[in-house]
Design the sequence.
């Protein structure tokens, strides 16, 4: 679990994010109206970067939690721990965000255990309450608290999905990979590689993403394109960089890897 509040008293540097619609405006409105926000979209399309960008833009602390199969409600709210020979209550990231104000971001929330949704429900309606059964407290979220969650609908199955009763508690926003011209500029900006060379990578990504649902579980992410461009900018041969970033991370199947390599050779020769 990664928790990363911005350091208090320091002017935050706003992470680079290239908007493709009105997502920034919707986020700001949700924050001002004290509404929880749900982000949906494929892996590596910019959801986490977007949240970091908006938290810095609004000047609010950000508590980021990477959800996983073993994440429980207690990991979010807190627990009693033995410290210096004494048992003391230690707030979890969600409780800290509610007490102090800020944005709590639960990445891939469907991966967490089912008891997490029970904790989130009273925070996602007009009550905006966080009950702490262990301490007997009932915390009311301040005006500058915001709950943001994300997940990848492409990985959903019957055991890993958000119930309608949970989904309908959020304002929702769909993310996808940026349009080619925008993605080219993002990859160039993040890697330092010339835009015309990044354009070839973006064209290749379109071919690889077309394989999703056939040979690949997930299409190549913008993040992986940035990694590839960064290696190329650092002097690595294109085909070697592409294999390390656009083949090996996407599949372990030899036949699928061969298909990916054919697409790469067709693009770069």
Sequence:
């Amino acid at each position: 679990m990664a928790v990363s509040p911005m350091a208090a008293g320091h002017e935050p540097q706003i992470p680079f994010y290239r908007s493709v619609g009105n997502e920034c405006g919707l986020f700001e409105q949700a924050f001002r109206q004290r509404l929880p926000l749900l982000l949906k979209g494929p892996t590596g399309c910019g959801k986490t970067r977007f949240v970091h960008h908006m938290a810095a833009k609004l000047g609010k602390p950000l508590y980021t939690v990477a959800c996983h199969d073993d994440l429980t409600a207690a990991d979010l709210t807190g627990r009693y721990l033995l410290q210096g020979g004494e048992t003391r209550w230690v707030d979890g990231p969600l409780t800290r965000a509610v007490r102090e104000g800020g944005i709590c971001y639960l990445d891939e929330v469907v991966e967490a255990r089912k008891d997490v949704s029970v904790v989130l429900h009273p925070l996602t309606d007009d009550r905006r309450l966080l009950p702490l059964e262990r301490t007997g407290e009932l915390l009311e979220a301040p005006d500058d608290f915001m709950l943001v969650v994300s997940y990848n609908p492409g990985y959903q199955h019957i055991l890993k999905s958000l119930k309608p009763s949970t989904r309908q508690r959020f304002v929702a926003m769909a993310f996808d990979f940026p349009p080619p011209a925008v993605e080219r500029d993002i990859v160039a900006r993040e890697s330092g590689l010339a835009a015309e060379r990044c354009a070839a990578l973006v064209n290749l990504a379109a071919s690889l993403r077309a394989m999703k649902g056939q040979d690949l579980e997930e299409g190549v992410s913008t993040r992986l394109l940035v990694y590839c461009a960064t290696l190329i900018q650092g002097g690595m041969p294109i085909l070697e960089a592409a294999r390390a970033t656009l083949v090996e991370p996407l599949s372990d199947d030899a036949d699928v890897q061969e298909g990916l390599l054919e697409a790469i050779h067709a693009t770069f020769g």
Observations:
- DSSP finds eleven helices and nine strands in the chain.
- The first strand starts at residue 37 and ends at 40.
- The two ends are 42 Å apart (CA to CA).
